[in-house]
User: What shape does this take?
Amino acid sequence: MDYIDEVLAELKEKYADQTEFLQATQEVLESLRGVIAEKEDVYRHEALLERLVEPDRQILFRIPWVDDKGNAKVNRGYRVQFNNAIGPYKGGLRLHPSVNLSIIKFLGFEQIFKNSLTGLPIGGGKGGSDFDPKGKSDREILAFCQSFMTELYKHIGADTDVPAGDIGTGAREIGYLFGQYKRIRNIYEGVLTGKGVTYGGSLARTEATGYGLLYLTQEMLRCNGYALEGKTVCVSGSGNVATYAIQKAQQLGAKVVTASDSTGWVYDSEGIDIDLLKQIKEVKRARISEYAKARPSAEYHEGRGVWQIKCDVALPCATQNELCIEDAQLLVKNGCIAVAEGANMPTTLEATKYLQQNGILFAPGKAANAGGVATSALEMSQNSERLNWSFDEVDNKLKGIMISIFHNMESAAKRYGQEKNYVAGANIAGFDKVANAMLAQGIV
Ligand code: NDP
Ligand code: 2IT
Assistant: This one.
């Protein structure tokens, strides 16, 4: 058996129940065959792949808090510090009832390569909790965040591990977490990113993932002879990534006709009204059905379904495995030319292969959504030098980073005879730097 198959077989046996983690490792390792073959003896001798797929450490803990009725509640907290070969662990905190070790490990594993692709000195990590922020009062969110940080603080630090937002963790939660860290440690440091701009946050971090997704998508289209301007775009989700993806797509002259949440989706033939969407999602924290009630050109549907709408470009921006084979078939049938992942692993392996085989330009999340973490790293730089950069300065750096990520993955794919296979290109380019650093640092 070749080295990659051996490692994958061992993972399947050891972590049979961690389906998302197995999916992510399979996607990455299978696309590294050409690279591994070049130095298989060295990699095998150094157990490089075995060390890459096993986190440095996994921290699991209890989060007790008290709800508004005075009842004690308990959630489970996670922080997986996956790999710090090229910099301190860096990655978001997800708050969602579906969170388990498999999900946090898949996200942490993806983060290693994503962070490497940014070209900035950040390692890979991820964390979160099975806490459900939906329907909780502000006081309950505060109670939960303070309790979460009361354990988490022991394991993080500006030069050790720097968490940030993800599903369910936005500006409010980061503020509460930062406040509790500062209170316990009495250190004012950039231990979290996505902070408010009055206390060490970076301008443009809020917009960065969605904007970055569009900068990369635009470059991918341009290099393949298309323009984004005038295109019809379908977006899923209506959270941080989706909102700013829609906004930037519109600024660049595209028409975005869908958005969704976990209860349903909207189709707006006139194009999504971004101010209305923000009002409903960021201010009222309400369901997407409210959008259709307030907008005559929009229709609301229960459940999932955005991928049945005819579009040129599809941007999945909600969650993992939300674009399956049936959706991919519909997109191809309807003449879609490009799919770029705003979310982490939103496309199943089967759907990804189908899209690629049918000539769709496919940008994987670890490249396409890297603008968020890249701008987090820029926030860390600003915190270290105790300065704040202007919105345009950060946004221009973000644009440059996304364009260079596209060209790095494109040329890595070409180098290994897989032209236009951006999945392989992103994995190879991300792996290269991390593997090099791991080999240089010995068996650790
Ligand atoms: P938010 O919590 O702001 O928004 C998430 C959106 O996705 C909401 O509309 C939510 O609907 C929907 N959603 C979440 N879970 C599900 C589900 N199981 N089924 C259907 N819909 C769901 O999160 P973000 O926008 O920050 O994150 C979206 C994706 O982007 C995630 O995959 C995340 O890992 C990834 N990402 C985020 C980055 C960031 O900087 N924030 C950076 C890079 C990637 P509802 O409100 O009903 O739950
Ligand atoms: O998946 C991701 O890259 C994020 N949720 C952002 C991580 C970060 O550290 O900004």
